[in-house]
Specification:
Alpha-Beta Plaits, alpha/beta, 2 domains, Glutaredoxin, 6 helices, elongated, single chain
Length: 222
């Protein structure tokens, strides 16, 4: 026979549950000046084994960690101190995360941001009479920074090169869902010739691979 729990037993159980919930809190830690999303893994690895820490997650768009922990076991200040041991600047609280500054292109270069997560029609980005590189990237993508440096040099060298940049923000953004469903890595390039016809695409960055497409596009007739 199953007996109905007494009121006193129910009350005691409820108090235990409420007490456990009361001691659990979420602390947000912002990380600053990192140049890749994978850099966050070292902080997660540092925080996850700390006594009292239940779960650590990273938001790559905002560069913030959410740490669910036992407030009686470890303080937010102690969590920040532990995260700082990795070597990156960290700050208690949200809204302060940031990535390292992006590459600065030559002032007179034809470089334009055409999307920050919004849908865009690629063919409309080709500049007539010029080589056009459509560059999909994100602030958390380290290879994207290397690509920007290479493109910056080519822009200074070539008078007929245009770059149209797309910040996907994240893989579930509108523009990523529109164009990158079969793409496995960033940056991703679509290159158009002077005749505004597509020359080729490149998944991931190699300087030789992208330069080959750019040189092929430069050989097309306007």
């Amino acid at each position: 026979m199953t007996h109905r729990p007494t009121r006193s037993l129910f009350t005691a159980t409820l108090l235990v549950v409420l007490s456990a919930c009361a001691s659990t809190r979420t602390t947000v830690i912002s990380i600053q000046d990192i140049d890749c999303v994978s850099c966050s893994a070292s902080v997660v690895k540092e925080l996850q084994p700390v006594p009292g820490v239940k779960k650590v997650t990273f938001n790559r768009q905002t560069a913030e960690f959410s740490v669910i922990h036992d407030a009686d076991a470890i303080t937010p200040e102690a969590l920040v101190a532990k995260a700082a041991e990795v070597g990156w600047p960290v700050v208690l609280g949200g809204g302060q995360g940031r990535y390292a500054p992006q590459h600065v292109f030559p002032k007179d270069a034809d470089v334009r941001w055409v999307s920050r997560g919004e849908r865009v029609e690629l063919a409309s980005l080709a500049v007539p009479g010029r080589v056009t590189v459509v560059d999909f990237g994100a602030a958390w993508c380290r290879p994207c920074r290397k690509a920007d440096k290479a493109l910056g040099g080519w822009l200074a060298e070539m008078g007929d090169l245009s770059v149209r940049k797309i910040d996907i923000l994240d893989w579930d953004s509108d523009v990523a869902q529109q164009h990158l469903t079969d793409v496995k890595q960033l940056p991703y390039f679509v290159v158009y010739g002077k005749d505004s016809k597509e020359v080729g695409r490149l998944d991931g960055f190699t300087e030789a691979g992208l330069r080959t497409l750019v040189d092929q596009a430069a050989g097309t007739s306007p």
